[in-house]
Specification:
DUF2934 domain-containing protein; DUF2934; disordered N terminus; mainly alpha; 2 helices; elongated; single chain
Amino acid sequence: MTKNNEDSVERSPEQIEEQIRLAAYFRWIERGCPAGEGVEDWLEAEAGLASQSEELEGA
């Protein structure tokens, strides 16, 4: 995800994981805190972050 312009930001694996963790948490909260569905929220958050990264790289 590295570009040679001022708009790009390189994130560490820890920063990426934290973004996924927060997105998954907020998805879980929005869905009413259902028990046993954390993996689904994590995967959705991970996919959402990946698609955002692709959109930014294509811009």
